[in-house]
Each structure stands twice: as C-alpha cells, then as structure tokens.
C-alpha cells in the first residue's frame, strides 16, 4: 500500500504545472487537495513504525535507520508546508519547503532492498570516483596542452568570396567589430564553413593529404571566429580542455578530426585523436563504470553474507530447540522402556522412533548426539520383530539407477574439463573463419572446396 501511494504521489508531482503570477490550472488545484491525503498516509506509516520499533533511544529504533530519517524529514516538511499555507497572508516563500517533496520518490528505496544496495554502492563509490575524476582531469589537461601546441590559432582562416573581405579600414570601431562578427557565406556544395590553407596557385579542392584549399572564386583569408563561433578550438587552455572533453565524450569528435585535417592534413593528424578516444573515452571514462561495478559487487556480497548469517543463526536456534525436544522425548522413552507394564509392541514403536530421531540428528550434522540405537534391540525382543531389516536390500532397479548415476558423473566430468572446453572453442573459431570467408565475387575453386567441406 505504501509503495503504491508513493508511486501515485510521484505521478501527481509530475502533473503539476506552474504558471506566472501564481495562476493555477484546475488540475493543479485538484492535485494540491490530494496533498493532505498523501501526508496522512505517510504520517500513519511513520507512526506505526515508531510504535513498533521505538523512536530513537535504543538500538534498532526508528531514527537509527537512514531511510527512516529520510521519511521523517519528508513528513515534517509536509506539515510545515501545510501550516504555512493555512496561515493566510504570510509572505514566506514556500518554494524551498515544497522542493523537499522531490525526496518522496526516494521512499521507494526504503521499501525495496535491491534499490538500497544500488544506492549504497553509489554513495560508497563517491571517494574512488573523485580520485578517478582527478585522473581524468589530469589526462584532459595533458591532451589540451598538446593540442594547444599543435592547433593553436589554426582555425581562423576560411574561404571568402574574392573582393568581399570583412577587414576594410574604417574610422568606426563599431563597424569594424560588426564586420568581425559576420560569418562569411558558405561555399556552394558545403553545409558549413571549413578552415582552409592559403595558396598562391590554383589547385584542386580535395588534395590527397586532406588539406582543404579554396575553390575558384574564393580566397582563404581571416579573420573567422572558427567552428562553433570559436568555442571549439585550441586557442587557449580553457577552450582546449573543453574541446578535449567534447572529444572524449565522443560527441562530434569526428567533426573535429575533419576540421584539423582541413588545415594540417590527415597523414599524422589522426594519431592525436585516435589516442584521445582510446585512452580518454574507452579507458578513462570506463574506469567509473568499473568502480561502480566493484562497489556494487562488494555491497551485494555484504548483504548476502549478512543474509546467510541470519539464516544460519535461525537454523542453529531451531536445531537447539529440536535437540532439547528430542532429549526430553528420549528420556521419557527410557523411563517407559524400564517399566514392567510396557508391552512388546510399545517397546518396538519406541525403538523405531529413537532410530528415526538418530537419523534426523545425523542429517543435521551432529552424529555425536545420535544415540547408538542398533538392530540388536529389536533382536532382543524376538527374531520375528527383526524381519523389517530386509526391506532395503538392493533390487535390479536399484542397480540400474546406480550405474546411470555413475555414467552421468563421468559425462559431467568430461564436459567440465579444460580439454573439452578448448575443443569447443577451436570448433567455434574454425566455424567463424568459414563463415567470414564468404564474399560476393569469390573464387570458383574456393567455392567448390567450400561446398565440399560443408
């Protein structure tokens, strides 16, 4: 019921719409009226927990648990908000108190133990994540300095139409700055501006090394702010770190690679960006996932060990109670066996019951407490009472199941061996090679061999 209430309350919080001048839609008014009902349910939950667990003064009480403290804060702030709203003309801004309602979805965590494991893992991983963050920052600074050395000021020249340069001498500083902010016209056939390299002779637009030269009718000139209005650049350490961060998040890093290729060519330029992606994106950022995974495994192991400990303690308590009960019964049986008024049938029943109790104790792993009740006690009563001993002799069916079990054991030992494992891996590898060797225009002899092989 509480979990359903929390989910419904989250839906109501998501449906609220805030308008200017404190205007409200009809649905917002209705949702505000439901607030008191949710508060009553949460108060009832907290009250019942306090009655059952106690408030704060002894171990295991209500406020000794972090999740209960969170629930208590939600309830108290809810009442504070309601009281201030009922005050009428108060000038107190309730937005801060109302913002505490965003903690209500966290009440789900207190009711679902698996979510508690996840959240505790994230909290405990904050210190290692901070250390990894420093390592990532150190890597970004190093790569930014390298980019600053190679690419500083390299992206401020682009193609302008001949005779249409923005840098005309003018007495007006404002006019000069306005011309500086103007973006040149995009070249026909290109979707955006591209940095270029100036040349004194007419060359092809696309060179073999990737350097971009302006086509006929355009001149490579400055000043251009650069890609993304100069933000994506290596002009200073700040912009360089921002550009490196953009690349290691793999957001538009290929565009940045093509921009640098337009100025420096693609012969050695790819080394910087490929190493940036491999070490920055594939390695550095995935360290965070590794830390979270490790902390989650530790927390889950701790929870499982505690659960196993509690289960073992309950089992030991049950065994102690059972031992006491069996001891009490056996003492009573010994007294009954020594009495002269006990019949032979009653003695047989008592002896068989004692044998069953011995079997239970042996299964529980405590053979020392098992009594040495043997078949001799039945023989002492007479040979006619010992005939039940032959009931459990092996039949042909029992022999068959014994051999079947032995065969299954041998097969399981085979499939779990390392040789069988590597044999399967080799078969899978060759199967993959055969499937990958197919092509659209394959050799005739190879095709015939492939068909014969399969």
Quantity of strands, as a count:
2
Query: Which word captures the global form?
Result: flat
Helix content: 55-70%
- What's the number of structural domains? 4
Structural class: mainly alpha
Contiguous runs where pLDDT drops below 50 for at least 5 residues:
201-206, 370-374, 384-394
Overall pLDDT confidence: 76
Q: Cα-atom Rg, whole angstroms?
A: 41 Å
Described by strand count, sense and barrel closure, the largest sheet is: 2 strands, antiparallel
Order of strands across the biggest sheet? 1-2
- Report the portion of residues in β strands: under 5%
Number of helical segments?
16
Terminus-to-terminus distance: 62 Å
What is the H/E string?
A: HHHHHHHEHEHHHHHHHH
InterPro entries: Ion_trans_dom, VDCC_alpha-1_subunit, Volt_channel_dom_sf
Transmembrane segments: 37-60, 129-151, 237-258, 270-292, 420-437
Domain Ion transport: 2-302
Subcellular location: Membrane
